[in-house]
Write a structure and sequence with these properties.
The chain has helices at about 5-50, 60-105. By secondary structure, it is an all-alpha fold.
């Protein structure tokens, strides 16, 4: 038993049989176009992110951080050069003092220096803070002691 279709459905069925592959192809093309567009948006976002990492537009960029590290290392290098210069000067000064000490030892061989460590304190009653130093944060106190003045005690 065959069921008769209404006229609008029978015409739609015949149209679908003739144009069905075309519709499926158009749906596939639309989906692929949307997918390509989505991938292109992601590629553009990645390109923007990578380009922003290599310019000076913000403080998080790669070049900005590398330049800061370069400036810091240059300043440390300058300080190391100064320290090396000071070290060479001090070594020269110590060498001159050692040479002078050897000259004095040769000139006066009768003077001997004992290398023994003293067993008792040389200054047993030494007071490192006798209280005679003025305290500048108190009123009428001066950090300089003038001749003839007696310093104020706290």
């Amino acid at each position: 038993m065959k069921v008769a279709l209404p006229p609008y459905l029978s015409s739609l069925g015949s149209w679908m049989r003739t144009h069905g592959l075309l519709i499926i192809a158009l749906i596939i093309i639309a989906c692929m176009s949307w997918y390509i567009y989505f991938l292109q948006v992601q590629v553009d976002e990645l390109r923007r992110h990578v380009e922003s990492a290599y310019d000076f537009s913000n403080h998080d960029s790669f070049d900005y951080r590398i330049t800061n590290l370069e400036h810091i290392s240059n300043s440390h290098g300058d300080r190391l050069k100064d320290l090396e210069t000071d070290t060479w000067r001090l070594n020269g000064y110590v060498n001159r003092l050692n040479w002078r000490t050897m000259q004095l030892e040769w000139a006066t061989p009768s003077v001997t220096v004992h290398g023994d460590i003293p067993k008792e304190e040389a200054m047993p009653n030494f007071n490192s803070n006798p209280g005679n130093v003025p305290w500048p944060s108190f009123p009428n106190n001066d950090i300089y002691i003038h001749p003839g003045d007696t310093p104020n005690q706290t």
